[in-house]
């Protein structure tokens, strides 16, 4: 009987603490984190390739409107409300015409600083292909 009451109390305490936010909830970033310096380098007349090299692949590039690229990101801090940011790049005749929307220059920099403490493994596809060729695996 004594063990059963201890287990019941322990279960109630665990359930109670779970609802109080004691359980860690990480920040969740999804989408494009745009670098302030790169966004500030955008100038009308730049080619799509130049924009792509500065901002990276857009979150949304519609096949129906190839002159609009959307860079979308969301941030949810500690399980709170989700903040949505959308930065839109417009092209005319395959050159940058204008931009609009918002991005997270300060949050992006801060998040990149926080993330830098964790190891990131980047794959060098050319190096991997060369190693496969040396091993006789072909491909490429």
Structure overview:
With 140 residues, the chain is α+β, with helices and mostly antiparallel strands. The protein contains 5 helices and 5 strands, in the order αβααββββαα. The protein is flat. The termini are far apart.
Name the shape in a single word.
flat
What's the rounded overall pLDDT mean? Answer: 79
The secondary-structure element order is HEHHEEEEHH
Query: Structural class, judged by helices and strands?
Result: alpha+beta
β-sheet strand percentage:
15-25%
Q: Can you identify the CATH class of the domain at 24-105?
A: Alpha Beta
Low-pLDDT residue intervals, each spanning 5 or more residues? none
N-to-C CA distance: 68 Å
> From the 3D coordinates, which CATH architecture of the domain at 24-105 would you assign?
2-Layer Sandwich
Question: What is the helix tally?
Answer: 5
Q: Percentage of helical residues?
A: 25-40%
Main sheet: strands, sense, barrel = 5 strands, antiparallel
Number of strands: 5
Query: What's the alpha carbon Rg, rounded to whole Å?
Result: 24 Å
């Amino acid at each position: 009987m004594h063990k059963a009451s201890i287990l019941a109390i322990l279960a109630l305490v665990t359930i109670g603490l779970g609802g109080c936010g004691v359980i860690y909830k990480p920040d969740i970033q999804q989408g494009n984190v745009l670098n302030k310096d790169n966004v500030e380098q955008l100038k009308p007349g730049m080619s799509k390739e130049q924009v792509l090299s500065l901002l990276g692949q857009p979150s949304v590039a519609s096949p129906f409107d190839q002159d609009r690229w959307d860079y979308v990101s969301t941030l949810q801090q500690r399980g709170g409300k989700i903040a949505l940011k959308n930065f839109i790049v417009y092209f005319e005749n395959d050159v940058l015409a204008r931009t609009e929307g918002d991005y997270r220059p300060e949050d992006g920099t801060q998040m990149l600083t926080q993330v830098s403490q964790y190891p990131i493994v980047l794959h060098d596809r050319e190096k991997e292909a060369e190693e496969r060729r040396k091993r006789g695996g072909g491909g490429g």
